[in-house]
Amino acid sequence: MAFHVRKATKIIPHFRNGMRLLGSLRESPFAVHKIGNRVLGFENMLNHLSAHRFKSTEVEKQIDSVNDDRDNQVLNFPGGKVKFTPQLSFVPEREEERIPCFRVLDDNGQPSMYSNFTQVSKEIAMKMYNDMVTLQTMDTIFYEAQRQGRISFYVTSIGEEAINIASAAALSLDDLIVPQYREAGVLVWRGFTLKEFASQCFGNKYDYCKGRQMPVHYGSKRHNYFTVASTIASQIPHAVGAAYSMKMEKRDACAVTYFGDGGTSEGDFHAALNFAAVLEVPVIFICRNNGWAISTPISDQFRSDGVVVKGRAYGVRSIRVDGNDALAVYNTVQAARKMAIQERRPILIEALTYRVGHHTTSDDSTRYRPVEEVEWWRVAKDPVSRFRKWIESNGWWSDEAEAELRSSLRKQLLEAIQLAERSEKPTVADAFTDVYDVPPSNLDEQERWLRKTIKTHPQDYPSDFPLF
Ligand SMILES: Cc1ncc(C[n+]2csc(CCOP(=O)(O)OP(=O)(O)O)c2C)c(N)n1
Ligand SMILES: [Mg+2]
């Protein structure tokens, strides 16, 4: 302890002197410094000292403009010229007009005649509808299975089908998905089968995670879909890191991360946006602003005009879109992807929607929000029926096709569930593998304890888990 105190008292004055030196250097932007035979300006010196970073055009522009301050009406400050003003005025906390929301289809599924949207082909539109109904049906049946005690937990995406499916439709399989937990539809779009969904929820031996995760924590390397992280917002910086590596490899792809309104209150969201802007990486941030973070309404989450405005604070191009309009989401994500990849820049999308279901099967939302509010969104704002009206008006869909699709999906899902339920569970040994190359001694010890406990109390151990 004494050692640490002594060391600290020695270090602090050096630290202070260092800071003073940096401060005085900052005050004199024209100061020059010698390193070896090279004479460097202050900004160049900082650049020289900083760790190597992948080429970033913005930063270079900034450095070039530092010594070019000839007009005393402006301050030539890193980042661009700043005009002086004699007015003492603060930047308002929000604009009077809220940021508008991009929409293509109205509530009756009719496209706005003024919208400059890109038409989707019949083939894509039919797959979008098919997959939205698949997600809806899957949610209904897995939810019932949880209520019957057959699986331990479930999360639905009810009300958010358009964000799930239309965003996935606008992406390429090469784009890496870094999800939260309410985006199973992206996997539906990418071809994760009903059997794969059911195996994960039942934690059987076909589950890629071998039963070591809660239900709905899907992940699939084959589908370029990172395993679900339900530690809120922790996935957002991961997506930025992945996008940075894609930039270095000059890949024709981007990283796409999803999160909720609640996630934007975590530090990880802010750090991620800032890193993404500064490093200029091809990442799309998709915020599903569904009004609630479990029982916390957005009015208790932030006082800004939602999430879209936060992009500007970090220098991230942003847009607000109607998350219940599949055509608007599709167009938005398609345009965002193009900009992200071609211009190597992050894009923030705030999709306005509503969480129609309870937060999870562990929640009862009637305790904290009016049932009428839920009903209004469920009936008047349903994204699936809005899209259906549009495909019907194009002559692509009928009542018969609808009945056939829903009954076929129900049958396939019930079969998938029965199969997953009957399949063997992973072994006890699997609980201890896949993390360490050589398991540490404490893990071996825990396995021995577990096996001993099972031997001593066999009646407390589920009989369908093989020991080896
Ligand atoms: C770091 C962290 N804090 C708290 C929780 C508990 N928690 C689980 S979901 C959730 C709300 C998230 O809301 P939001 O981000 O809006 O997503 P939504 O569920 O609405 O899709 C919270 C607080 C958690 N999982 N992780
Ligand atoms: Mg939310």
UniProtKB/TrEMBL annotation:
Tell me its cofactors: thiamine diphosphate
E.C. number(s) listed in UniProt:
1.2.4.4
Q: Where are the transmembrane segments?
A: none
Q: Where in the cell is it found?
A: Mitochondrion matrix
Which UniProt keywords are present, listed alphabetically? Metal-binding, Mitochondrion, Oxidoreductase, Potassium, Transit peptide
Q: Which GO terms describe its cellular component?
A: mitochondrial matrix
Does the record carry Oxidoreductase as a key word?
yes
- GO process terms (BP): branched-chain amino acid catabolic process
Spell out the molecular function terms from Gene Ontology: branched-chain 2-oxo acid dehydrogenase activity; metal ion binding
Broad EC category: oxidoreductase
Matches recorded under SUPFAM superfamilies: Thiamin diphosphate-binding fold (THDP-binding)
* Record InterPro entries: Alpha-ketoacid_DH_E1_comp (IPR050771), DH_E1 (IPR001017), THDP-binding (IPR029061)
Instruction: Give every Dehydrogenase E1 component domain span.
Output: 132-428
What chemistry does it catalyse, as a reaction equation?
A: N(6)-[(R)-lipoyl]-L-lysyl-[protein] + 3-methyl-2-oxobutanoate + H(+) = N(6)-[(R)-S(8)-2-methylpropanoyldihydrolipoyl]-L-lysyl-[protein] + CO2
Can you state the subunit structure given in the record? Heterotetramer of alpha and beta chains.
Q: Which family does it belong to?
A: Belongs to the BCKDHA family.
Q: Which protein are we looking at?
A: 3-methyl-2-oxobutanoate dehydrogenase (2-methylpropanoyl-transferring)
What organism does the record attribute this protein to?
A: Cucurbita maxima (Pumpkin)
Q: Which gene encodes it?
A: LOC111478096
